[in-house]
Amino acid sequence: MDLLLLGALLLIMLLLSIFWYKNASWNLGGKAPALPPGPRGLPIVGYLPFMGSDMLRKLTDLYHKYGPIYKLRLGSKLAVVITSPSLVKQVLRDQDLIFAHRDPTVAGFTYSRGAKDVVFSPPNSSWRAMRKVLVKETQSSSGLDASYQLRKEQLRKAIGYVYSKSGEAVGFGELVFQTQVNVVMNLMWGGIGSEERLGTEFKALNSEISHLLAKPNVSDFFPLISWLDLQGVKKQMGKVVDSLDKILESFINEREKLSGSSLVKNEVGRKDFLQTVLELKENKDSDLPTLSRDQLKSLLSEIVSGGSDTAATTVDFAMAELLNSPEAMREVQKELSDVVGMSNMVEEFHLPKLHYLKAVIKETFRLHPPVPFLVPRSPLQNSTVGEYTIPKGTKILINVWAIHRDPSIWDSPGEFKPERFLHDDAADFKGNSFQFIPFGSGRRICPGLPLAERMVAYFLASFLHSFDWKSEDGKKLDMSETVGIVLAKTNPTVAIPTPRLTDASLYI
Ligand code: HEM
Question: In which residues is heme bound (predicted)?
């Protein structure tokens, strides 16, 4: 019976694939240029069985074989992979509006309550309103300065913890991930009260979300049968989103009750995102849009999920690269001693003077871009890239990882050499140098960039200035990478700290 069912299912999938293929080809019209080249796959499943588990290497090997633009059929979905700065420019700048759409997975669509958040929404008025509020908070110096204390208190807790483990092996990678989630949660709603128990529940749900978002799902490769939800991903995500909703509702309700009380007259540096957004309603002079309850909840949860793992994985990789490059480690610590002084902790105002540290961070973004294929784009209409047709609805993967390691662009691309970013004309990551795009580019460039830049620099500087670090067995650290929701170190960094500052009371 099971075999019969499977056979029937395969037959339906075959018929649907043929229908889809014919329809897609027909839509291109007679005179359109050809589709990009690409490997042949099997009927129905396309190239899926050959993808293997190492997507970075597989898509980069295919680039070496088929060139900077190639297609892949993954089930009934067409994906196009782009691996050259000039073609990236065509997509992200020259045809920005056409390619500003996303192609959310079933898990992503459910998580974003029907693509109603900033990440997955089409570029419509609701997306613009949410992005505007987010950008104001995370890009203006005043917005960033207003929340400094919220970052500082969580980081200082982590430094205190490491101090208590001096001389012992510390799971640095794990610690950074935990601290980063705490920091971002604090930035969102931690300014005034907020129940700790709910924060812990939120964290658990957040990891469940990351797990479901990263899980390969048959429904994404065969959209026409996605209603069957064969793996139950949609159902599970629906449940998580409902629970998340309840927690966010209670944070908002709690804060609304406090509105107008003396508690809400924030101390300098403790203004959280929730408070800022709620105050928008009262501030008639603000040019920022007032967000609906659903928009506010979406923003709160996506900032925690978008802003935590990305920044944490960068700090984890940077520490590991420095442990493997003693000269760079000496250089960055010397700069910290000169700029900050051995009897002070790092403060955010020191950051603009830490040029070598900034080069270390850029070099880490180059070698280990946290979002190695960007968040996939999808064209709104049939279009042309290079000399090829890209049909409407294609999933566009930009292979940032391979561009960042291309020997025709970078000298000794596999080596960790922060010095390459010390020159005045070195590439920046603000979306203008298409050979270096860890935050993407164009109208959908990461809106959290300035906040991320500050958090990564502040974290890394603080851990490196407060402690000397060495690996457990004196050997080089394994730098293997795993692609999940972000690019992570397969084995998070473990290292042994020794206090470095002259005044022990600074740690407590
Ligand atoms: C090291 C840290 C981070 C990295 C490397 C990173 C990277 C990215 C990338 C590559 C994209 C896709 C851009 C594109 O499609 O062109 C993106 C989008 C996004 N990021 Fe980040 N991100 C980081 C931190 C953050 C933080 C801290 C926040 C929140 C404050 C954030 C919020 C978002 C949002 C909301 C989007 C979707 C934007 C849109 O679709 O309009 N990210 N990020």
Answer: 446
